[in-house]
Specification:
Two copies of one chain form a homodimer. Chain A is built from seven helices and eleven strands. In chain A, strand 3 and strand 4 form a beta hairpin. Chain A is globular. In chain A, the strands form two sheets. In chain A, strands 1, 2, 3, 4, 5, 10 and 11 form a seven-stranded antiparallel sheet that branches. Chain A is an alpha+beta fold and about 270 residues long.
Chain lengths: ~270, ~270
């Protein structure tokens, strides 16, 4: 069942069910086209207020799709019937800020800690669909690699123990398509929204596009401009920098698939 | 200094300073044109998580402009240098859900309780400016009364102790201008966004437009359609229904004036 083509026509609930049964553990890129996928951050309740405030103060980098009740294992609005502890194909577990495990199921961890709060954060997959629909190329998809991401010199608004600089993703856009790329993404503020910088990486503290801080470098062709968007790695970086006692996230590329359409995120 | 014309050309910081010195205590309607005003809700930290979650889950009715740090008296991002306890012309104080006082300054209450968390919630004044700029009439402004507001049958997503139904405001719009009214407000999701209902009040549980649950009735002329938007009274109603031990809000019409332009709320 790690054959992705067999999954292409399944509903989000059906794919989550397969994952829950342990029958799929691969990346979710390209699954359930048209439906939003999200980043997962799970923290003890004692840290949840600070993190919710951090997201509220940095909504472009940390667009919250849903916050589950403390102790709940389901995103009741975005994916009724979901099981947060089993419906992602792979997780990362951090103890005191250090990566300790990459399991395919974290039910035992939820059972052991009834105080966990789960945050679902919007993901650029949603706006990349919109870019492609508008005829705007997305280079890292063409090249089959991860999007290049860079630390910037732009400080986030701090909240409690959480602070850090904005992380951005970069997509090279042909110069004649840059206005359309801005307009399309500006219309989707719930999944990162408009770019923060167009064409001047040094203005936000980025020195070398060929060596991203996360993800992979992509080709920038003649006539293309590097465009930078707020990235969902920002909240994860802020959490990790604070070395929380306990944290669970999705493994990179192994996202939570919601029942929410990308189209609904434009409303 | 309760002469409003003398205030018309002052900056938000200058008006807040006048209010702080006790030199103005009237409604803020029409002051500092072009700048966003906000609803205030102040709660003890023990209730703040539930309320922040309620706002996150009901963003159209409860669009958070800013949440101050626990114990802080300033909205550092929306109004640097502001004093939340003194910069609104009039407050309401509730003990166990019951209105006990309407003071012009609540510094003593903030001094007595270092655990208070202040929430600033977007206000329809901002989108009404945008409607007027687009040539769309706003009836309650023409008639010099409060906007009519109605309880609906639409449940909010509950969060902890907070629950309740959506409260909406109504503006009669000439039918040929309804599409423009939707488009203009849809572009401002941080101040309530698009309408929830156009023309069928009974579909959302409203029986009698002539008797609003809050505010004043307004004239609906032939050829006009009642259009209903999520209203910032929703979070206040949810808070009051839960009878919190302690709560401070702005007095109706006596809002917090920010340094944020309405134009910036469209980004």
């Amino acid at each position: 069942m790690n054959d992705r083509s067999a999954l292409a026509s399944l509903s989000p609930a059906a794919v989550r069910s397969l994952i829950r049964r342990g029958e799929f553990s691969g990346p979710t890129t390209g699954l359930c086209p048209g439906y939003a996928q999200g980043n997962l951050v799970v923290l003890p309740k004692a840290l949840a207020w600070d993190f919710l405030l951090f997201c509220q103060r940095n909504p472009k980098a940390c667009p919250l799709l849903e916050v589950a009740d403390a102790g709940s294992r389901t995103f009741a609005r975005s994916a009724p019937g979901s099981d947060i502890a089993a419906d992602l194909p792979r997780y990362r577990v951090y103890i005191k800020g250090k990566l300790t495990d990459e399991p395919v199921n974290v039910s035992d961890l939820f059972d052991a800690r009834p105080d966990l709060v789960s945050f679902l954060i919007g993901c650029s997959f949603s706006f990349e669909s919109a870019l492609l629909e508008a005829g705007i190329p997305v280079r890292q998809i063409e090249e089959g690699v991860n999007v290049p991401m860079y630390n910037t010199s732009i400080p986030c608004a701090p909240a409690g123990i959480f602070h850090g600089n904005l992380v951005v993703s970069m997509r090279p856009i042909p110069h004649r398509l840059v206005p359309a790329a801005v307009a399309v993404t500006a219309g989707m503020p719930r999944v990162h929204g408009m770019p923060v910088q167009i064409g001047f990486p040094e203005a936000i503290g980025i020195r070398d596009l060929a060596h991203p801080d996360y993800g992979d470098a992509v080709t920038i062709r003649p006539g293309e401009v590097p465009v930078f968007w707020p990235c969902g790695v920002t909240p994860q970086a802020a959490v990790m920098a604070s070395r929380p006692d306990f944290c669970i996230t999705h493994a990179p590329g192994h996202m939570f698939i919601t029942d929410v359409t990308n189209a609904a995120l434009r409303l």
